[in-house]
Task: structure prediction
Amino acid sequence: MKAIWNGEIIAESDETIEVEKNHYFPPDSIYKSYFTESDTTSNCPWKGEAHYYNVQVNGEVNEDAAWYYPFPKKAAEEIKSYVAFWHGVKIEK
Result:
């Protein structure tokens, strides 16, 4: 699977985990140069507190376009630190 935004591949892995129709990419599969930490957090009742990344490609910033669970609840342990995307990031095979 590939995560693509603004014409660039920002993550790539054959070992994503699909949860609630979102592909979660292993932490070592994201191209870190495109990611900066965001101060945004949100809460999922069964996964826990999500943290976000801003994605910057070719001078454009997509705020909070990626999220991950650094300390997930027990039910979501398999996606600990895995990264998922939204806000126009395309996921392709």
The beta strands are 2-5, 8-12, 17-19, 22-24, 35-44, 48-57, 60-68, 83-85, 90-92. The domain at 2-92 is CATH 2.170.150.40 (Metal Binding Protein, Guanine Nucleotide Exchange Factor; Chain A). The CA atoms of residues 40 and 52 lie 6 Å apart.
